[in-house]
Design goal:
Blueprint lengths: L1 H13 L10 H14 L1 H8 L2 H16 L3 H13 L7 H12 L4 H18 L5 H10 L3 H12 L4 H16 L3 H13 L7 H13 L3 H13 L7 H13 L3 H12 L2
Helix pairs in contact: 2-3, 4-5, 5-6, 6-7, 7-8, 8-9, 9-10, 9-11, 10-11, 11-12, 12-13, 13-14, 13-15, 14-15
């Protein structure tokens, strides 16, 4: 099981080969905003100063100890991040598990994601996949993508094919990252036949919704003429989109395109 999760990590990393995703600053700031919108109590904590954070966490710690699931989740996230309380990953896992056991899908996903990190650190199977599956079955889009990615890496063809279906479900709920994962599936032949045109189709879906990696890949494909008719106009269009999100590689590509005009 752990070997599969390690393979999943390699697969997720492979999504960004050829691009320094840390340089896509605007996009990842948007992702942070999305995370804060998803966790409104943590958003309040994030916006506060340190003194306010400590008071806020203390008040919710009391509520968590009294059995309030939302406060349990907040306390777990605070312990993970060290906002308003001393960072403690073991205690964070405990509180996230308590929140997850209340059946709230955001908490289930947060607990599963935390378990995945701990599995990667310890090399032990802690049941992360089972929790991720539960959140996926509850219809949580990010969990659908994560569980789908896990199945995609399975050795069993039926599971791998099912993994792509989970990724498609996630995308249908608006999780853009799932489209990039599906594109990589078509690139490598994971759960589907290798298909360059389908790969480009899924990258385009992600690119049109603002994903910087997909935008940069489309720019590169149009510039190089791989799988698409070579188009300097389209290459420049997508390179500008990715560069506007802070992708340094796209900025470099844009300079090369403009130099040859």
């Amino acid at each position: 099981m752990f070997a599969k999760m390690f393979s999943l990590s390699i697969f997720l990393i492979s999504m960004t080969i050829g691009i320094n995703t840390a340089s896509a600053q605007n996009y990842y700031e948007a992702q942070r905003a999305d995370y804060l919108a998803e966790h409104p109590l943590f958003a309040q904590l994030f916006a506060a100063n340190e003194i306010e954070r400590r008071v806020f966490v203390a008040s919710h710690r009391a509520k968590a100890q009294a059995g309030d699931a939302k406060s349990m989740l907040l306390l777990g996230l605070a312990l993970q991040s060290g906002f308003g309380i001393e960072q403690n990953q073991a205690l964070a896992l405990d509180w996230l598990q308590k929140a997850a056991e209340q059946g709230e899908n955001r908490a289930i996903y947060a607990f599963a994601a935390a378990l995945l990190k701990e599995e990667a650190r310890s090399g032990s199977d802690l049941g992360a996949v089972a929790w991720m599956k539960k959140a996926a079955e509850d219809g949580y889009a990010k969990a659908e993508a994560a569980y789908g990615a896990h199945l995609v890496m399975a050795l069993d063809d039926a599971e791998t094919t099912q993994g792509v279906k989970w990724l498609e479900k996630s995308f249908d709920q608006g999780h853009i990252q799932a489209a990039v994962l599906i594109a990589r599936c078509y690139s490598f032949g994971f759960g589907v036949d290798r298909d360059w045109d389908k790969m480009i189709e899924w990258y385009k879906k992600a690119a049109e919704l603002g994903h910087p990696t997909a935008q940069f890949i489309l720019a590169s494909e149009h510039n190089n003429g791989h799988g698409l008719l070579k188009s300097r106009k389209q290459a420049k269009f997508w390179a500008e989109k990715a560069a506007a999100q802070g992708v340094r590689e796209a900025t470099d590509l844009l300079k090369k395109i403009e130099a040859n005009e």
